[in-house]
Amino acid sequence: MHFDGGTIEIVTNEGSYCFDGRTKSKTKGRLYYGYPKPDNSNLILNYIESEIDIFNALEDYNNKTGFDRDKIDYFLKNKQNKNYE
To answer: Whose CA is closest to 54, among 2, 12, 4?
Structure first.
């Protein structure tokens, strides 16, 4: 977690992804390749499939290990209620 208001970074074997939690951000909750750039040029436009893949991988990872279980559970619980438009 970054100290910018709550951006969550997830590092995978395919790279780093961030869910925007920056204070006063106009893209709060959206998914980025890496940490959000000031011009938002690394915003993932077709994000739904990527988010689903990340959530499924986190659930699988969380079920296999106890490492950071409380943080993963908290993140997944809060993101599950997100409505996709």
So the answer is: 12
Find residue 44's DSSP bridge partners.
Answer: none
Q: Per the structure block, which two tokens stand in for 72?
A: 């993963």
Reported as a single tens digit per residue, the pLDDT across 8-64 is: 999 888 899 999 999 999 999 999 999 999 999 999 998 988 888 888 888 887 666
Q: What is the pTM of this model?
A: 0.77
**Virtual torsion, Cα 2, 6, 32, 9, nearest 10 deg:** 50
- Beta bridge partners, 16, equal 11
Radius of gyration of the chain from Cα atoms?
A: 13
Domain extents in the chain: 8-80
Instruction: Give SS3 for 11.
Output: strand
